[in-house]
């Protein structure tokens, strides 16, 4: 990972920062919710759109953390079988197990849905991109049946496969945003220096709760901006023996054919970005690359609009782009 920020010149009031993290999963992120046969074109589009996202990031000097499901590091199903850990999560809901699913799905024609070593290498070859982890198996840290031991084994597997590509994992995003405070110590012991935590809004606190009320408020928040999504650099606290917890701000929702809602979404993000830039705050934007799979052209157009706005914020207010590990280094440098 290239470093593009002079940390020694940073102080507590110099700049605002745009942090982008992407949950890179392919089928492993949604296998329990979709029929993979109906998502073939969707994931083919996803694989094609990732190099285009990287191209835009290069054009605008965007630094990004790609929280990557460890199973994507495998070349094929044969290698995947060889890398099943000794201890795997024993979820009460067995449909959540990526291991059970993979054993049933195991066929050459499905490998493009589940493995992406070539794309990981492209990310690695792009300046200012950090490869982080989304656990090995898209591990659910709050589900009944999983344990600390199975989480540790899962994370160790991701670390092992990443090291085989010369990657040292420093940042973690909990799948489905199931943030588990009890697991932070083992993350730190295994070399994870940063984790993405959830927004503080009440409708984000219980990420297992898909109640209609929560869905309405999460969706409405994307368009109406119920409150400010950025925060001060001084709000980040280093705790002994734990990774730095970096709060997510805004989920970038995919393109909507409803022009009014789509423009409302973009204006919401632009307004929040401007506010963060003006007030020297951190604005953490995140999404899944596969969110662009249904309409790559218009999703990339939306991203281009937002990156143009970022460029204007850079010119007007000195706004800077960082990935999660770079932000960690900034915080530790000024502490």
From TrEMBL:
Q: What InterPro entries does its record include?
A: Glyco_hydro/deAcase_b/a-brl (IPR011330), NODB_dom (IPR002509)
Single GO biological process annotation from the record = carbohydrate metabolic process
Start and end of every NodB homology domain?
A: 47-194
Please state what the protein is called. Answer: Polysaccharide deacetylase
Listed GO MF terms: hydrolase activity, acting on carbon-nitrogen (but not peptide) bonds
């Amino acid at each position: 990972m290239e470093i593009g920020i002079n940390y020694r010149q940073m102080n507590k009031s110099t700049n605002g920062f745009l942090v982008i993290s992407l949950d890179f999963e392919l089928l492993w992120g949604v296998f329990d919710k979709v029929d993979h046969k109906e998502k073939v074109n969707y994931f083919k589009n996803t694989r094609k759109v990732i190099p285009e996202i990287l191209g835009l990031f290069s054009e605008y000097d965007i630094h990004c953390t790609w929280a990557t499901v460890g199973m994507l590091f495998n070349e094929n199903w044969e290698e995947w079988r060889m890398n099943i850990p000794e201890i795997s999560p024993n979820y009460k809901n067995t449909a959540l197990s990526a291991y059970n699913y993979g054993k049933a799905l195991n066929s050459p024609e499905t490998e493009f849905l589940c493995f992406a070593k070539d794309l990981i290498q492209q990310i690695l070859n792009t300046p200012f991109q950090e490869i982080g982890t989304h656990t090995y198996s898209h591990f659910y840290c709050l589900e009944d049946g999983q344990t600390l031991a199975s989480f540790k084994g899962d994370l160790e597997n991701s670390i092992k496969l990443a090291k085989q590509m010369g990657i040292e994992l420093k940042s973690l995003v909990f799948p489905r945003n199931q943030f588990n405070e009890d697991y932070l110590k083992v993350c730190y012991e295994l070399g994870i220096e940063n984790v993405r935590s959830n927004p503080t809004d009440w409708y984000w606190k219980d990420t297992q709760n898909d109640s209609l009320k929560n869905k309405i408020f999460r969706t409405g928040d994307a368009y109406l901006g119920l409150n400010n999504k950025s925060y001060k650099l001084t709000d980040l606290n280093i705790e002994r023996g734990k990774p730095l917890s970096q709060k997510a701000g805004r989920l970038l929702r995919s393109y909507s054919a409803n022009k009014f809602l789509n423009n409302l979404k973009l204006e919401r993000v632009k307004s929040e970005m401007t506010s963060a830039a003006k007030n020297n705050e951190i604005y953490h934007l995140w999404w899944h690359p596969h969110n662009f799979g249904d309409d790559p052209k218009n999703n990339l157009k939306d991203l281009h609009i937002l990156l143009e706005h970022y460029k204007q914020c850079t010119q007007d207010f000195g706004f800077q782009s960082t990935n999660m590990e770079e932000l960690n280094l900034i915080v530790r440098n000024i502490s």
